[in-house]
């Protein structure tokens, strides 16, 4: 089935289509509506759904990690502006606090695995605690790790909280045992520079150490749009390490 991408910024949606055309992310449908307008019925038939898709960071990270294009998964890095130290830090009072809308879709559609990411600020950690509580109420086991881009060889820090929610085995063993399994999986992040992960590389000579996805910015007509897309993006290489740790758990 085609992949579903939800991204309401026109320049980022155009970027996604260019990435698909270049074969870097799976082909799919780009929905440019706000997530507030998306209903569970809109997602019928899609095994992979990427919300707040941006410039395809999560989709690209899954491929780097070896996650099959036809394996079910959802991803979503909710907007960081309500929580970022660079913003006003209004938290839940910010209109861009969109976790409730994302969670409503998760609770309705019950995807087996969900990956997400958020800024590693004090407010971000408080946000993650609420996310964990919501997902555990929906019978998911949740694991998380505080990681920086430098851990995957990037020449910058970009500290982020990565999390995963998984439901597939909850009927086979207790939630406590599965939670412990997820925690053990995240500990495997210490293998970041393992030779098995050598394929996850950085574009040599690219200014600022930005990931290789930036070179396929065809269709993005101005530098402001390019910088905005990159600035809001996850680092696919570190996300891929997190996904691999989960897959090996």
Which short descriptors sum up this protein?
249 residues, alpha/beta, Rossmann fold, seven-stranded mixed β-sheet, 7 strands, 33% helix, globular
Q: How many strands?
A: 7
In the CATH hierarchy, the third-tier topology is known as Rossmann fold
Give the termini distance in whole angstroms: 27 Å
Low-confidence stretches at least 5 residues in length (pLDDT < 50)?
A: 82-91, 185-225
Order of helices and strands: EHEEHEHEHEEHHH
- Largest β sheet strand count, sense and barrel closure: 7 strands, mixed
Give average pLDDT, whole number: 76
Helix content: 25-40%
Quick recap:
By secondary structure, the chain is of the alpha/beta class. It is 33% helix and 15% strand. α2 crosses α7 and α5 packs across α7.
Description:
By secondary structure, the chain is an alpha/beta fold. It contains seven helices and seven strands, in the order E-H-E-E-H-E-H-E-H-E-E-H-H-H. Strand 3, helix 2 and strand 4 form a beta-alpha-beta unit. It is globular and about 35 Å long. Residues 82-91 and 185-225 have low confidence and may be disordered.
Task: Describe the protein's topology.
Blueprint (H helix, E strand, L loop, with lengths): L2 E4 L3 H12 L6 E4 L16 E4 L5 H9 L7 E4 L22 H11 L3 E7 L2 H16 L3 E7 L12 E7 L8 H13 L35 H9 L4 H13 L1
Parallel strand pairs: 1-2, 1-3, 3-4, 4-5
Antiparallel strand pairs: 5-7, 6-7
Helix pairs in contact: 2-7, 5-7
